[in-house]
Amino acid sequence: MVKSTVRFPEPVVEEIESLVDDGQFESKSEFYRFSADYVLSRTLDDYEPETIDYEAIEAEVIPDAERELGGDRDADGPPFFESVAFVRKLALRGKFSDAEDFIDHQYVPGDRHAVLLEEILRLYREDTASDDRSPASEREGDPTTRNR
């Protein structure tokens, strides 16, 4: 193995130490090796993790739903990306209350998907409000678009 020195912010190291203290990892080194292997395996198609007991650590530390792309297959609500498309369609048509109703009826309060959908809806609402406030002539004179 090659030894490499990496500097981390103190709060990051404290969180890692708490995971080691809780028994999630045997040592900080195991955490760092697993973390690097995990990111590489997610980023590179042909990468094979080399951490000892990688699969066992992954199964213990990362729930199945988070390991699968689009990990909401077993969720109670509709598939997330379909929900994003539907909320987007309603927002583009200015039907914000319909989009809110959809989110409220399809997801429980605090669900991570509901929070993201509400944030998407907020951004569309802000875009619509800013379009209503600034006349077209002001937007054409915007310095970010004038020099294109």
Automatic annotation (TrEMBL):
Q: Where is this region: Disordered?
A: 127-148
Under what name is this protein listed? Answer: Arc/MetJ-type ribon-helix-helix transcriptional regulator
